Amino acid sequence: MSIIKTLKRLPDLCKFNVTFLKSSSQSFNINCGQYSGRIFSRVFSNAVRHHDKDLLLKTGRKETGLYALPVKPKANPLHPRNALFGRNDIDKHGNRSDMFLVEAFSTAEEYRFPDFYKAVSTKPEFEEIKISDELDGEVLAFKLNKSGQNKPSTIFIFREGTTVFWNFDHHDIKNTLQLLRAFEVKSYPDDLVKEENEIMQFTYSEAKPKIIRNIIHITENEYPPLSQYTFSNALALSVKLAIRESSLDYYVDNIKFISEDIRDGKKIKLTQDQVFRKTGELFNLRHHINLSSDLLDTPDFYWDRQELENLFLQTCNYLNTLKRTKVINEKLSHCLELMDLLQRHLSDKHHVRLEWMIIVLIMVEVVFEFLHYFERIVDN
């Protein structure tokens, strides 16, 4: 009786699985048709592409995750830094006695502040500047004591791995970054640090601090230097965002082949585990942008300091920080849509594979039952 029941159920099972296969295939084709074109046309048209994949970074820094990136000059219309002079051009075209440079570098995910503070306290050339008790543990400020300087050199070091130099020369910047390297957590490659930096001109003025014609105007004898800190804070956010933009550009360039495979109807070359890890990279990047930074909101420090808040917002607006944040979030959303599409497709393929395994096992069982049945007939 069990053999007869199994045989009767076999056509229904086969019919069910064939129907399931057809529906899964149709569902995937519909999803690809609806989403793949929209996703990739918007993601990859806005992304910076054509990285040289053969360009490998070989630096003394530890390269991990999304931060071991090849660096190639890119044009970002939302980023005003690309429209400004570089350091050499500023030295050549703006070499005036009343003009100085402010430069921002992001070298790591984080600095170990307690250890760094102990190390720098033993160096007489660094004189600490107290900004505010509210910023303890978040930022360190020092004045560089150097003979022969007509204007002070100030440095702001942010715990999130960013350093802003005011009126520092090449040699002093190099030495300071070398000192910081021992206290970095998840360092970025040197080429990335040099490429994704901010550089502007500044001068001293009797008027209120502001930006006029790409030049920062600050007062010379302000103490504590809150206006200088405000400019530095905005520059630090901008250069950190530039690092995130490069991370996403590199990620997008590495998954470009997926769109081409879907378009050409080729087999997807990623496994479910690989898709899961790539999705995790995207969520990690989104976390750093939206939850672990002040890119989407004004820092609490400015809430009861209206003039500084206006100055901070003016600088962020000049650096297009908010617009760039919206763009990178939209790119992240499209990439996550793609990963979700791939995850569902691979999950459907896995279910189909399980169904076929069940069919094969049932057929094997039926064959063995037939063999046993014929054996009993022969014995009788």
TrEMBL record:
Q: Give the lineage.
A: Eukaryota, Metazoa, Ecdysozoa, Arthropoda, Chelicerata
Q: Which InterPro entries does UniProt cross-reference here? A: DUF155 (IPR003734), RMD1/Sad1-interacting (IPR051624)
Q: Which residues form the DUF155 domain?
A: 155-329
Chain's gene name? 107370259
Q: Member of which family?
A: Belongs to the RMD1/sif2 family.
Write one Pfam family the protein is assigned to.
DUF155
**Highest taxon listed in the record's lineage:** Eukaryota
Q: Cellular component GO terms, alphabetically?
A: mitochondrion
Protein name as annotated: DUF155 domain-containing protein
Q: Which terms does the UniProt entry file under GO BP?
A: positive regulation of mitochondrial translation
